[in-house]
Amino acid sequence: MRSMSTDSTAPAPRIRPDTLSGERAALEQWLDFHRETLALKCQGLDDAQLRTVSVPPSDLNLLGLVRHMAEVELAWFRRVLAGEDTPWLYDDEKDEDRDIHVTDEDTWEEAYATWQEQIAHARANAAGRDLDDPGLRPTRHGKTVNLRWIYLHMIEEYARHNGHADLIRERIDGATGN
Q1: Is residue 31 part of a domain?
Q2: 87, 172 in Cβ contact below 8 A?
Q3: E strands, the chain, where?
Q4: Number of other CB atoms surrounding residue 64 within 10 Å
Q5: Residue span of the structural domain in which 102 resides
Q6: Who contacts 5 (Cβ-Cβ below 8 Å, separation ≥6)?
Q7: What is the pTM of this model?
Q8: What per-residue confidence (pLDDT) applies to 88?
Q9: What residues have CB less than 8 Å from 73, skipping those under 6 apart?
Q10: 8 A C-beta contact, residue 82 and residue 75
Q11: For residue 109, is pLDDT > 90?
């Protein structure tokens, strides 16, 4: 399994998925590709730039997207798939979108480390499971989903937010592509 660089200043070692892999490998490779894409969109920016919102009144910012994806990794791979009773990372009774609503105290180092920790938990919880294995806890909508569904949903979630990240990054410094 590939892993992202922990050096936040170096380009992410984004590897395009193999075009001839089996289903499991393809799902894991595409998920890693999208994880690496989000890291790439954040690289080379300082904390102030990472807090820059896209277009007011939207609250979306790159730092918040990374924190949000840490929560999403936790939700699907730890809570739903593995049935863990793990508390939310950025829970706040006054602000249900606290992951996105960053403050001056929130840093890239913390967000990136937390995100990587949740990715490591996700990989560990998915290892050894069959794609047809159901999660041990229903979703917030009461549905049971299998690992295949979780992988597909995570790819969709990252792809959508990477589109947001493209626009936010372009607004910050004009960088496009990748």
Answers
A1: yes
A2: no
A3: none
A4: 24
A5: 23-173
A6: 11, 12, 13, 39
A7: 0.91
A8: 95
A9: 115, 118, 119, 121, 122, 154
A10: no
A11: yes
